[in-house]
Amino acid sequence: GESVGLHLPTLSVQEGDNSIINCAYSNSASDYFIWYKQESGKGPQFIIDIRSNMDKRQGQRVTVLLNKTVKHLSLQIAATQPGDSAVYFCAETHTGGFKTIFGAGTRLFVKA
Amino acid sequence: DTAVSQTPKYLVTQMGNDKSIKCEQNLGHDTMYWYKQDSKKFLKIMFSYNNKELIINETVPNRFSPKSPDKAHLNLHINSLELGDSAVYFCASSQDVQGGNEKLFFGSGTQLSVL
After folding, report:
1. In A1-112, where do the E strands start and end?
2. pLDDT for A3-57, tens place per residue?
3. Which of A69, A104, B84, B113 holds its CA 20 to 30 A away from the CA of B13?
4. H-type helices in B1-115, by residue range?
């Protein structure tokens, strides 16, 4: 998600549409980036990751894009489903580091 | 079997009290963490432990004292609780950070409410 203001950024999409969640990271030394999904009442759960030697990685229905030049990360969810409704966090760290820093989160609402 | 389990799930207490949260992971991971999530969902790292040794203490007040009796457990004791300590506390683990396995596995959280 994007780190903005006082409120959790929200993205509302129609079921079946594609979703794109954006994130700006802060540390130029970070070389490992992860997207996590947090459903209500649960802990964050790993979705997909990417290392800095790549600019795109695909999973099942999800794709992560990395633009190191502008320190930007995005998560694309294809054919969004109601079960995708959650808060999504981007996170950054460096290889061998013990500190993963989380972005502010984006809440995704999927309308049936 | 729950991979990372923490207890209790809910904790309601008065200001000034001392409380503990327990965490256990059965994944065989080397590294464990405590994160704090505030009401705006912002997740902030508090501590990292690797093989029972403290690696990261992210300027957390001394009232918070983590303890790792073994690699599978990381408990969090909080003295003299304050209103601002109200949050959801998440325990997490990762397999082998130094080997490049930094992916975090989280527990389901402990919602602490200080009255």
Report:
1. 10-14, 19-24, 32-38, 45-51, 56-58, 62-67, 72-77, 86-93, 101-102, 106-111
2. 334 568 999 999 999 999 999 998 888 999 999 999 999 999 999 999 999 999 9
3. A104
4. none
Q: Is B110 in contact with B10 (CB distance < 8 Å)?
A: yes
Residues of B in contact with A44 (CB under 8 A): 43, 90, 104, 106
- In chain B the first and final C-alpha atoms are separated, in Å, by 34
- d(CA B107, CA A44) in angstroms, rounded, equals 8
Strand partners, B4: B25
DSSP for residue B51: T
Using CA atoms, how far apart are residues A38 and B19, in angstroms rounded to an integer? Answer: 26
Closest Cα of chain A to B69: distance in Å? Answer: 19
The label of the residue with tokens 């966090």 reads: A89
Distance CA A36, CA A17 (A): 20
Q: Is A100 in contact with B105 (CB distance < 8 Å)?
A: no
Closest-CA distance of chain A to residue B98, Å: 4
Contacts of B95 in chain A (CB under 8 A): none
**How many residues appear in chain B?**
115
Mode of pairing for the β-strands spanning B53-57 and B4-7: unpaired
Note the pLDDT tens digit of each residue in B78-104.
999 999 999 999 999 999 777 676 899
Among candidate residues B54, B11, B3, the one with its CA nearest the CA of residue B29: B3
